[in-house]
Design brief:
The structure holds 2 protein chains of 2 kinds. Chain A is about 65% helix and about 5% strand. By secondary structure, chain A is mainly alpha-helical. The longest helix of chain A has 22 residues, at about 50-70. Chain B is globular, with a radius of gyration of 28 Å. Classes of the chains: A mainly alpha, B alpha+beta.
Chain lengths: ~350, ~1000
C-alpha cells in the first residue's frame, strides 16, 4: 500500500514556521523529516513518522507554490489563491528574504552574475549552508538588485515598497545592492574580521553622503552610484598632503588640540603625516573604479592597521579623527572645506565602525 | 419578467505573459450571454489592463437569466494569427434575481483556464434590471430562494414546510460526443463546464417552478448532484425541501423568542399522552434490526418482477426494507391522522432537512434506506430523463414504504446518491423515518398550539426517542424499555438516525465520530452478471457495516447515532462501504451493554486465556471511552424505572457467517437489556480480525474531538477560529491477489492514517473539534482507492467548558443543541401566529432565563451566544475575540456548518454552485498528482471565495464538495479532475460587534438577532 496522492488544503493556508525554516534552509523532504523527528515532535504529539512525512510534503508543496509569489511580494498580498492572514504574509516574506551572515559576507561586493552563481557550490561547502539555500539567497540579492537598480528615489524606500520588507531588512538589502553595484572588495583576508553589519553601516553613510541622491533626489539610480563629480573633486584634497606647509600646519593644529588628551599622543604625533597621507590619497584615487573597489582594503591598510599596531584605544581614534577633520577649517590656504566635510564626515563614521578587532 | 443584464469590464491584473517577445499581453475581453457577444477594446501591452468598458447590455428573458451563466473570456489579441484565450470566468447571475439577496456582483474574479488553472484576475460589475410582466406564461421561477443549508436558515422563519421537490435533467456528455475526437481538450472541458452550468440553471429553474406551484418561496436543503454516466449521458439531479420562509426583520417579533428551550419542549403536541397504554403514535426504530430484515430471496423476487422494464436489478436491501408488509398497523391518534392526511397529499413525504424547528420532529423511527443496481447501457432513450425518473421514483417508493412499516409517515434527513463504475450504477437513498408535527406542514393549523401549551409538565428532551410504532405489532423484533427520562413511553435500546442531534435532546457526555469501513472483492464481470454480483454482495455489505457500527458504538459506551451516512462505492473488482456517524449517549435510552466475546472451543485452555485477554482489553477500552467522553449517566435503579423489562438477562447472539440464510436472519434477536452484553463469537479468523479492528481504532489525541454532525454535543464555547479544509488521499493496492481481510486492513489504515494526519496538522488549534467530518470514497481505477475528507476544525475554550461542567455537575443530563437558531424562529412563529405580544408572565420569563443559563450547558453555549442570553454575552466579552483584520483581499470564511461560531449571519446572498474541470498534460512539471490536485483545490477555494466576495459576502456556509473525480495517466503525463462544490453565500457580523447594541437593551435578549437581520454590509 503506497500513498499515490496525499494532500491537505485549508481555506486558510496552514503555515508551519518550523517547516518553513527547514524549507528555506534548503533541506530535502527526507532531511527535514529527519530533523523534525530529532526535535522530539513525535513524542510531543504522538504522531508517527508517516504522518510527519505527509505533513512535511504538504508544507513543501505549499511553499513551492508560494515561492513564485514571494518573488514579487506585492503579488502575495493581492493574489486570491492562498488565503493567508496579513501577519503570516509578512512573516513569509521577511523569512524568505532573510539571509545568512556567512553567505552574505561571501558575495558582498561581488557582481551578481552567472559567474558568481557558479561559485555557489564552493560557498556552500565553505559555509555549510545548503546549495539550495545559497541559491535562494543569491537569487534574492539579484532580484532585488535588478528591480531597484535603475529606479528613482530612495533605495531603501524602493526596496521596501517593492518587496514589502521590514525597515531593517530593507536597509540591509540597500547595502547589498550598493556594494554589488560598486563592487567593493570585501573578501580579502585583511577584511575577514569585518562583519556584514560593519559594511552595511558604511554603505548607509556612503549612500547618504557620497551618491548622486545626496545632492539631487530626482536622478535615476541616484542611491546606487557614487557621485562622479564628487569623486573627481576629491583630487583637490591632495593639497593637504602635497603642500608641506599645509601639512605641517594641520599637524600642529591637531597636536596642540590633542596634547594630553590622547594616551597614544606620541605615536599619533609620529604617525600623523603617514595617516594623513593615507586618508587623503584614498580620496584622491577614488576617481578610478579600481580604487573605489579597494576602498575598504586601503582604509584598513592606511589607517586601521597602523593605529591598531600602536594599540590606539577606540576613543583616541575618535578624538583624533574629530580633531583631524575639524582642524582643516582653520587652514586658511585650504579652499575645499565643503568637499572635505562631505568626504571626511562619512569616512570618519566608517573608520570608527571598522576600527575593532 | 424579462430583464436587462448589464455588465461592465473594469480591469485586469496579474495577467500571464502572452507575447514572449515583449513579455507583455494585448488583452481584450469577450462578454457573452446566451447568443449575444460584446467585446472590449484591446488594451495594448500590459499585464494589468484598464479596460473600463461601457455597460454592455443584454435584453433577455428571465428564463434565460436563470439558465444561462454569464461567460467572460479574456483573450490576447494577435494581428496575424488567431487570438489566444487566456481564460474564462463564469458568473451565475441567479443571486441577482431575487430581491433579498445581492443587488450587484462586483469584484475581482480569477481568470480560469482548464489547462493552465488560474491566470490573473479580472474586475467585473454585473447588474440586472427586472421588469414586471406577469401576463406571460410562466416558465421561469425568479424569486424562489435556494439554500444548501439543511435547516431553516438563520434570519428566516418557516411559515410552512411544504415538502419534497426533485428534478432531473439529462444531456449528452460533450466528452463522449464524436466531435471530442477532433477538438482540443480545452474546448471539450469548456463545453462540459458550460453545459453543466446551463443544466444546473435549468434544473434550478424547474425546481423553482415546482416550489411556486406548491405556493412556497424557497428551497431549503437543496442538494444538486452530477452523475457522469459516460456514454449514456450526463445527469444533473437535485432534491430539496420546499418551504415558505419569512424574513425575520421586526425587532418586536423577537421578544417572545426569548423563551428557553424547555419552554419549547412543551409545544410538542400530541402523543405525549400521559397514559402509556395508548400508543397513539408509537415511534422509534432501532434501525439496526432493520438491517437484518432484508432477505436475499426477496430481492430476487423484486428483480424478476421488474425485469420487464429493461433489466433493473433492484435488490433494495437496506435498513427497513423487510418490514414493508406490516405497514397497515393501526394508527389511533387523531392528530396523527391529521398529519398523515397532510402528508399523504404528497407523493413523497420526504424532507432533506437535518435540523428542525423545535416541535417539528415528534418521533424518530430509525434509518430507512434503499439501494438499487442499474445498467446504464440499457436505457432506451438515454437523452430523456424518463428512465432515471422511474428509477428514482421506485427507490423513493421503497423508502416511503419502509417508513410506513416503522409507523412513520415521513422521512427526514433524506438524501440520494449514486455510484457509477463503467455501465453499472448503484442508486442509493436514505433518510430517517419520523413522525412530524402537522402544524408546519399546512396553513392555518396553529390551533394546536394553545392546547399543547397546557401540557406544561411534560418531560423534555426525550420525545423524539419514543417509538412511533405499535408495541404489540412491531415491525421487527426490538427490545423496548420505558424511557429513562420521562418513564412514560417506550424507547428502543439503540437509535440510528441520519439527522442532526435535535436541539432539545438530553445527552450525557460528549459525542464522537464513529466509522464503519468495509471492502468486498468482486469478480470482474460484464453487464448483467456484474449487476447480479453486486446485488448479491450489497446485503452482506449492509449487514457488515451495520454490525461494525453497532460494535463500535457499544465500545464507546454510547447508544445512539446521528448523521449516519452509508456510502457504498462500486469499482471494477471491489465494493467499498463507508459509514460515518456521530455517536452519543442519549439520556432517554438505556445504558448499552458491553461486548462479550465467546469462543467456539471452550475446552482449550490457552484459547480460553486468549479470549479472556481479549475480553479484558475490550472492557478496558469501554471504560476508557466512557471516561474520555464523560459518559456517566445517573444511576437509576430498576424500581425507579418501574418498567417490567421483559427478560433482563436475555443474551443476544450475533452469529457471524457469510452463508447466512434468510431464516437465520429472522432468528437474530439483537435486543439488549440494560445489563445485557453484546456477544461476539470469534470462531474463525474472520471474526478475530473484526475484534482486532475494533480495538485498533485509536481515539483522537487529547484536546481533539470529532463528529460528522453540525455540532458536537457536550462542547459549547466555540471561539471564532475556524479552519475548513479538504484532504484527499489515494492509495495504490500493492498485490494483485488481495484478500478481503488485507483489503479491509488497507482501507482501515487509509482512513485512520488520514485522521491522524488531520489531528497532527491542526494541533495548533487544540482544544478543537472537527465538525461535519465528511468522508467520501471512490475507486477511480482497479487498484486505487481515493478518500476525500472535508471538515471544519473549530477551537473552543477549554477553561470555560470545564467551568460550565462544574457548575452543572449536579445536572449530569445535558441538553445539547445542534442548532439553536431554530429556538428563536419557532417560538417567533408561535407568537406572531397565535400569541399576544407578551405571552409569558414576567415571573416565568425569569425562570426561563435561569434555565437558559443553567439548563443548557454544554454544546449550546457557544451558539447561545448568538441568542445573546446575558450570561453568554458576558462570556463573550471576556473572551474578547479579535476582530478579523482587514487585508487587501477580504477574508472569506468557508464552513460546512450552517453557522459561524461567534457570529451572526445577517443576510443570505444566494447559492454558490460551481463546477470546474482541470486537466494537465504536464503532470510531472506540475509536481505530480499531488501537486496538481493541491493546486486545483486551492484554486477552487479561491474561485468560491472570489464569487462570494463579489456578491458582497464574507462567508460560505453549508459548503460541500459534492464531487471530486480524479483521473490520472502518469505514463502519458496527464491527469484530469472534476470538482463540484456548493454552499450558501452569506454576510455575517461578529458577535462582538453586535454587543454594543444588545447591551443597550438588556431585557430583550434576542436583540442582536434582529439588529443583525437588518445590518447589510
Amino acid at each position: 500500500m503506497t500513498n499515490e496522492l496525499d494532500i491537505f488544503v485549508g481555506n486558510t493556508t496552514l503555515i508551519d514556521e518550523d517547516v518553513y525554516r527547514l524549507w528555506l534552509d534548503g533541506y530535502s523532504v527526507s532531511d527535514a523529516v529527519a530533523r523534525r523527528v530529532r526535535s522530539g515532535i513525535l513524542e510531543q504529539t504522538g504522531a508517527t513518522a508517516a504522518v510527519l512525512q505527509s505533513d512535511t510534503m504538504d508544507h513543501y508543496r505549499t511553499f513551492h507554490m508560494l515561492e513564485r509569489l514571494l518573488h514579487a511580494p506585492p503579488k502575495l498580498l493581492h493574489q486570491l489563491i492562498f488565503q493567508i492572514p496579513p501577519s503570516r504574509q509578512a512573516l513569509l516574506i521577511e523569512r524568505y528574504y532573510a539571509f545568512d551572515e556567512a553567505f552574505v559576507r561571501e558575495v558582498l561586493g561581488k557582481k551578481l552574475s552567472k559567474g558568481t552563481k557558479k561559485d555557489l557550490d564552493d560557498i556552500s561547502t565553505k559555509t555549510g549552508i545548503t546549495l539550495k539555500s545559497c541559491r535562494r539567497q543569491f537569487d534574492n540579492f539579484k532580484r532585488v538588485f535588478k528591480v531597484v537598480e535603475e529606479m528613482r528615489g530612495s533605495l531603501v524606500d524602493n526596496i521596501q515598497q517593492h518587496f514589502l520588507l521590514s525597515d531593517r531588512l530593507s536597509r540591509d538589502y540597500a547595502a547589498i545592492v550598493f556594494f554589488a553595484n560598486n563592487r567593493f572588495e570585501t573578501g580579502k583576508k585583511k577584511l575577514q574580521y569585518l562583519s556584514f553589519g560593519d559594511f552595511a553601516f558604511c554603505a548607509e553613510l556612503m549612500i547618504q553622503n557620497w551618491t548622486l541622491g545626496a545632492v539631487d533626489s530626482q536622478v535615476d539610480d541616484m542611491d546606487v552610484d557614487l557621485d562622479k563629480e564628487f569623486l573627481q573633486d576629491l583630487k583637490e584634497l591632495k593639497v593637504l598632503v602635497a603642500d608641506k606647509d599645509l601639512l605641517d600646519l594641520h599637524k600642529s593644529l591637531v597636536c596642540t588640540a590633542l596634547r594630553g588628551k590622547l594616551s597614544v599622543f606620541s605615536e599619533m604625533e609620529a604617525n600623523f603625516k603617514n595617516l594623513s597621507r593615507g586618508l587623503v590619497n584614498v580620496a584622491a584615487k577614488l576617481i578610478h573604479n579600481k580604487d573605489v573597489r579597494d576602498l575598504f582594503v586601503d582604509l584598513i591598510e592606511k589607517f586601521v592597521e597602523p593605529c591598531r599596531s600602536d594599540h590606539w584605544p577606540l576613543n583616541d581614534v575618535r578624538l583624533f579623527l574629530n580633531q583631524y577633520s575639524a582642524s582643516v577649517h582653520s587652514l586658511d590656504g585650504f579652499r575645499h572645506q565643503t568637499l572635505w566635510d562631505r568626504y571626511m564626515g562619512t569616512l570618519r563614521g566608517c573608520l570608527l565602525r571598522l576600527y575593532h578587532d | 419578467m424579462p430583464g436587462k443584464l448589464k455588465v461592465k469590464i473594469v480591469a485586469g491584473r496579474h495577467l500571464p505573459v502572452m507575447d514572449r517577445a515583449s513579455d507583455l499581453t494585448d488583452a481584450f475581453v469577450e462578454v457573452k450571454f446566451g447568443n449575444t457577444t460584446f467585446k472590449t477594446d484591446v488594451y495594448l501591452k500590459s499585464l494589468n489592463p484598464q479596460w473600463n468598458s461601457e455597460w454592455f447590455k443584454f435584453e433577455v428573458d428571465d428564463e434565460d437569466l436563470q439558465d444561462e451563466p454569464l461567460q467572460i473570456t479574456v483573450l490576447d489579441h494577435d494581428t496575424y494569427s488567431a487570438n489566444d484565450a487566456i481564460g474564462k470566468v463564469y458568473i451565475d447571475i441567479d443571486p441577482l434575481l431575487y430581491s433579498e439577496a445581492a443587488t450587484v456582483i462586483s469584484g475581482w474574479f480569477p481568470i480560469y483556464d482548464t489547462i493552465h488553472g488560474i491566470r490573473g484576475e479580472i474586475n467585473v460589475i454585473v447588474k440586472v434590471d427586472l421588469f414586471n410582466d406577469l401576463n406571460r406564461f410562466r416558465q421561469s421561477s425568479c424569486g424562489v430562494k435556494f439554500f444548501c443549508t439543511t435547516s431553516i436558515p438563520k434570519c428566516y422563519r418557516a411559515v410552512i414546510i411544504h415538502g419534497f421537490v426533485e428534478e432531473l435533467v439529462v444531456n449528452e456528455d460533450p466528452e463522449y460526443q464524436w466531435i471530442d475526437r477532433i477538438r482540443t481538450p480545452r474546448a471539450s472541458n469548456e463545453a462540459r463546464q458550460r453545459l453543466i452550468s446551463l443544466m444546473s440553471g435549468e434544473l434550478q429553474r424547474k425546481i423553482g417552478l415546482k416550489v411556486l406551484e406548491m405556493r412556497g418561496n424557497a428551497v431549503v436543503g437543496y442538494l444538486q448532484c452530477f452523475d457522469l454516466e459516460g456514454e449514456s449521458g450526463l445527469v444533473v439531479r437535485a432534491i430539496g425541501t420546499a418551504c415558505t420562509l419569512d424574513k425575520l426583520s421586526s425587532p418586536a417579533a423577537f421578544l417572545p423568542a426569548c423563551n428557553s428551550p424547555s419552554k419549547e419542549m412543551k409545544e410538542i403536541p400530541f402523543n405525549e399522552d400521559p397514559n402509556p397504554n395508548t400508543h397513539s403514535s408509537g415511534p422509534s426504530t432501532p434501525l439496526k434490526n432493520q438491517t437484518y430484515s432484508f432477505s436475499p430471496s426477496k430481492s430476487y423476487s423484486r428483480q424478476s418482477s421488474s425485469s420487464d422494464t429493461d433489466l433493473s436489478l433492484t435488490p433494495k436491501t437496506g435498513m427497513g426494507s423487510g418490514s414493508a408488509g406490516k405497514e397497515g398497523g393501526p394508527f389511533k391518534a387523531l392528530l396523527r391522522q391529521q398529519t398523515q392526511s397532510a402528508l399523504e397529499q404528497r407523493e413523497f413525504p420526504f424532507f432533506t432537512l437535518t435540523a428542525f424547528p423545535p416541535g417539528f420532529l415528534v418521533h424518530v423511527g430509525g434509518v430507512v434506506s434503499a439501494r438499487s443496481v442499474k445498467l446504464l447501457d440499457r436505457i432506451h432513450n438515454p437523452d430523456e430523463p424518463e428512465t432515471r425518473d422511474a428509477w428514482w421514483a421506485e427507490i423513493r417508493q421503497e423508502i416511503k414504504s419502509h417508513a410506513k412499516a416503522l409507523g412513520c409517515h415521513a422521512v427526514v434527513g433524506y438524501s440520494e446518491s449514486t455510484s457509477i463504475c463503467e455501465e453499472v450504477c448503484i442508486l442509493s437513498a436514505s433518510g430517517t423515518a419520523a413522525v412530524l408535527n402537522p402544524r408546519f406542514l399546512q396553513d392555518g393549523t396553529v390551533e394546536g398550539c394553545l392546547e399543547q401549551r397546557l401540557e406544561e409538565n411534560l418531560p423534555v428532551g426525550c420525545g423524539f426517542c419514543h417509538i412511533p410504532y405499535d408495541e404489540l405489532n412491531m415491525p421487527f423484533p426490538a427490545h423496548l424499555t420505558y424511557c429513562y427520562n420521562c418513564r412514560k413511553q417506550k424507547v428502543p435500546d439503540v437509535l440510528f438516525t441520519t439527522i442532526d442531534l435535535p436541539t432539545d435532546a438530553a445527552v450525557v457526555g460528549k459525542g464522537c465520530l464513529i466509522q464503519a469501513r468495509l471492502c468486498r472483492l468482486k469478480k470482474k464481470a460484464q453487464a448483467e452478471a456484474n449487476a447480479t454480483a453486486i446485488s448479491n454482495l450489497l446485503p452482506f455489505m449492509e449487514y457488515e457495516v451495520h454490525t461494525q457500527l453497532m460494535n463500535k458504538l457499544k465500545l464507546k459506551g454510547m447508544n445512539a447515532l446521528f448523521g449516519l451516512r452509508i456510502q457504498i462505492t462500486v469499482g471494477e473488482n471491489m465494493l467499498m462501504g463507508l459509514a460515518s456517524a456521530t455517536g452519543v449517549y442519549l439520556a432517554a435510552l438505556p445504558t448499552p451493554g458491553g461486548i462479550q466475546i465467546a469462543g467456539k472451543t471452550p475446552n482449550d485452555g490457552s484459547y480460553e486465556q486468549h479470549i479472556s485477554h481479549m475480553q479484558k482489553k475490550i472492557n478496558d477500552t469501554i471504560a476508557k471511552n466512557k471516561e474520555l467522553y464523560e459518559i456517566n449517566p445517573p444511576e437509576i435503579s430498576e424500581e425507579v424505572i418501574g418498567s417490567p423489562i421483559p427478560e433482563p438477562r436475555q443474551r443476544s447472539r450475533l452469529l457471524r457467517s457469510q452463508s447466512e440464510s434468510s431464516d437465520e436472519v429472522i432468528e437474530l434477536d439483537l435486543s439488549h437489556g440494560k445489563k445485557d452484553a453484546f456477544v461476539l463469537e470469534i470462531d474463525d479468523t474472520d471474526a478475530m480480525e473484526d475484534v482486532h479492528s475494533l480495538l485498533t481504532d485509536v481515539p483522537p489525541p487529547s484536546g481533539f474531538y470529532s463528529c460528522n454532525t453540525e455540532i458536537m454535543p457536550g462542547i459549547n464555547n466555540w471561539t471564532s477560529e475556524i479552519q475548513m479544509f479538504t484532504s484527499v488521499r489515494v492509495i495504490r493496492l500493492s498485490s494483485l491477489n488481495l484478500t478481503n481481510q488485507a483489503l479491509n486492513k488497507n482501507f482501515n489504515d487509509l482512513c485512520e492514517n488520514l485522521l491522524k494526519s488531520l489531528y497532527f496538522k491542526l494541533r495548533s488549534m487544540i482544544p478543537c473539534c472537527l465538525c461535519h467530518v465528511n468522508f467520501t470514497v471512490s475507486l477511480p481505477e482497479d487498484e486505487l482507492i481515493q478518500v476525500t475528507v472535508t471538515a471544519v476544525a473549530i477551537t473552543f475554550d477549554k477553561n470555560q467548558a470545564l467551568q460550565t461542567i462544574k457548575t452543572h455537575v449536579e445536572k449530569s443530563l445535558q441538553r445539547a443543541s445542534t442548532d439553536n437558531e431554530e429556538l428563536l424562529q419557532f417560538p417567533l412563529e408561535l407568537c406572531s401566529d397565535s400569541l399576544p405580544p407578551h405571552p409569558f408572565p414576567p415571573a416565568k420569563e425569569h425562570l426561563e432565563s435561569a434555565s437558559s443559563n443553567s439548563g443548557i450547558p454544554a454544546a449550546q453555549r457557544a451558539v447561545t451566544v448568538e441568542k445573546a442570553s446575558p450570561v453568554a454575552e458576558g462570556n463573550f466579552r471576556n473572551r474578547s475575540a479579535p476582530p478579523c483584520a482587514n487585508s487587501t483581499v477580504g477574508v472569506v470564511k468557508m464552513t460546512p456548518l450552517s453557522f459561524i461560531p461567534g457570529a451572526k449571519i445577517t443576510k443570505y446572498l444566494g447559492i454558490i454552485n460551481m463546477f470546474f474541470i482541470r486537466e494537465t498534460t504536464s503532470l510531472r512539471e506540475e509536481g505530480g498528482v499531488s501537486g496538481f490536485l493541491h493546486a486545483f483545490i486551492a484554486e477552487v477555494f479561491a474561485m468560491v471565495r472570489a464569487h462570494v466576495a463579489a456578491l458582497g459576502g464574507n462567508a460560505v456556509v453549508s459548503y460541500i464538495m459534492k464531487q471530486c473525480v480524479f483521473m490520472e495517466n502518469p505514463n502519458k503525463n496527464q491527469a484530469q479532475c472534476l470538482i463540484n462544490v456548493s454552499g450558501d453565500a452569506v454576510v455575517f457580523v461578529r458577535e462582538s460587534d453586535l454587543e454594543v447594541i444588545s447591551t443597550q437593551q438588556p431585557t430583550a435578549n434576542c436583540q442582536p438577532l434582529c439588529t443583525g437581520g437588518e445590518v447589510t454590509t
